[in-house]
Specification:
Helices cover 29% and strands 16% of the residues. By secondary structure, it is an alpha+beta fold. It has a single domain (3-213, 233-398), classed as Beta-lactamase. The strands form 5 sheets. Strands 1, 2, 3, 4, 12, 13 and 14 form a 7-stranded antiparallel β-sheet that branches. Helix 1 (12-24) runs antiparallel to helix 12 and helix 2 runs parallel beside helix 5 (161-173). Keywords: Hydrolase. It comes from Virgisporangium aurantiacum. GO terms for molecular function: hydrolase activity.
């Protein structure tokens, strides 16, 4: 498999693991990018973008990064907070009055960011294409009753996070989430990263290659077991009540899906875009004359505010800062639930379904992005992405206490 791009010789191990992903771990098409001290030290891509046509994955190929999108949406909220326009400790109704229904009057903005709002799904059946209608989803969530008392526990808001946080961004800024991100992040930083992809870039997108269906005896993550066993459960509603987005084959690759502004799952970019978004956050909040946040806000972005041994939705341990995933070691769980994210404690970022990942590690002045088209079967970062992360940390002289432990520097 031909690998293209560049890498600093210090990071040859990343290139080796990237090649091994294709040779040994079933990679189809992918890109990986790493910056240190603001300089790009790895920018690699390779494989097949579209197996049905044989189109190669080249430098300009874009991919759907699924929940890695949440990092972009959270950043928009933190930018407004850093400017004094949004108080993360204020009730949501301060900015979105219609939200204060059915026991949500006391929900705080930070509860939305840390998956503590109790709104991971909607109970009433949603119509086909609902995720492409922002107002419909905002109204549905404003009317919804929380599934638990807000602030008392956390459960991953896998599909609703973008509408919840994004509507606050819209109310405060007067701009849609995708427009705000383009104006304040992607444009100033020169990133090819969209929440709502323009039609002219559609031919560059690599379609998703779904994970192989589980066979007899294959381990299945607890989330899917619960969702398929009880459609009325929270996992069941998350998986099935989304207007067909998650269950209709090919729907997430449709032009309508790519064009929609979906701040939880809809981002289109490549590894360069993910690493580029986190690049200023690895350097104190400013890069190349562009300031996104200051040190105080950056601290809040990386500080753990919610952790649980049983996430109310994913049914595995999770750890969150306000809007971002923190390092979490789930290697002690049954094999289907072991996918976590092993970083240093100073790092924060977000994975996407199937394995994509972007993060910043301010302690090492490091940013990282990885995108791919073939999804893994689990809910976290699988061995393809983690092998690249491990190689980056090894190149920087970091260590792990044991084979399954967190990274230290």
């Amino acid at each position: 498999m031909a690998i293209d791009g560049t890498f600093d010789p210090r990071f040859a191990g990343v290139r080796d693991e990237f090649e091994r992903n294709f040779a040994e771990r079933g990679e189809v098409g992918a890109s990986v990018c790493v910056t240190v001290d603001g300089e790009t030290v790895v920018d690699l891509w390779g494989g097949t973008a579209d197996p049905t046509t044989g189109r190669v994955w080249d430098r300009d190929t874009l991919g759907h990064v699924w929940s890695a999108t949440k990092g972009a949406t959270a950043l928009c909220a933190h930018i407004l907070a850093a400017r004094g326009q949004l108080d993360l400790d204020a009730p949501v109704v301060t900015y979105w009055p219609e939200f204060g229904k059915n026991g949500k009057e006391s929900v705080l903005v930070r509860h939305l960011l840390s998956h503590q709002a109790g709104l991971p799904a909607v109970r009433a059946p949603l119509p086909a294409g609902c995720f492409y209608d922002w107002q419909l989803m905002a109204d549905a969530l404003a009317a919804e009753e929380p599934f638990w008392r807000p602030g008392t526990r956390n459960g991953y808001h896998a599909l609703t996070f973008g509408f919840l946080v994004g509507e606050v961004v819209r109310r405060v800024s007067g701009r849609s989430l995708g427009t705000f991100f383009a104006d304040e992040v992607a444009g100033p930083l020169g990133l090819e990263f969209w929440l709502g992809l323009p039609a002219e870039h559609e031919p560059r997108v690599a379609p998703t290659v779904p994970a192989a269906p589980a066979g007899p005896g294959d381990a299945v993550p607890s989330f899917y077991v619960a969702a398929l066993s009880d459609p009325a459960s929270v996992p069941g509603l998350v998986l099935a009540n989304n207007g067909g987005y998650m269950l209709v084959p090919g729907e997430s690759d449709s032009r309508a899906a790519h064009a929609a502004e979906m701040g939880a799952i809809g981002g289109i970019t490549q590894a360069r875009g993910l690493a580029g978004m986190y690049r200023p956050l690895a350097l104190g909040g400013t890069v190349d004359g562009v300031t996104l946040v200051g040190p105080a806000q950056l601290y809040r972005m990386g500080a753990v505010v919610a952790a649980t041994s049983v996430d109310a939705v994913l049914l595995v341990p999770t750890r969150w800062s306000m809007g971002y995933t923190k390092t979490i070691d789930n290697s002690h769980l049954p094999v289907a639930d072991r996918e976590g994210l092993l970083l240093t404690e100073t790092a924060f970022g977000h994975p996407g379904m199937g394995g994509s990942l972007g993060f910043a590690d301010p302690g090492l002045r490091l940013s990282f992005g990885y995108t791919m088209n073939r999804q893994g079967t689990g809910l976290g970062v699988n061995e393809r992405g983690q092998s690249l992360v491990d190689a980056v940390y090894q190149a920087l002289g970091c260590r792990r206490v044991d084979d399954a432990g967190h990274w230290y520097h």
